[in-house]
Predict the structure.
Amino acid sequence: MASTGKTEHYRLNRWALSDQILMEDFNADNETLDAALHALSDSLVQRAGALQSAIGSGGHTCRLIHGSYVGSGENKTLSCPFYPVAVYLTEARESGVNHSSVLLRGVTLASAYSTAKVHPVWGECSVAFDYYTDEGDTYYYLVLGYSD
């Protein structure tokens, strides 16, 4: 008997103790994962190509700003004097366990680590987000974009 359970999003096999584990189940899961990763890779390559075309082309000048801020517990907005297309965020923790994220314009969700999600909101000269905001923690950022 194949697995009696399936994962929510990709319908991968989840076995109960009473299930017989079959090689066919593993092979089917590997094919599903391979197809999903390939589609994700293609999507990211297309988005990166669009960003690369936009930055430095058509009379645009590549710009960047960097800095730090201390979290207030509220959503954070980074303002810049140009059109932002990518943001790198990281935290500074004394424990040495730091989480980082790359936010890309056009991508509505980024992951700080396996369970934390960042939801960026892009403006003409800003980006706002709902993570990397813990009160009293220090965060560092690098914003990449372009201007005319």
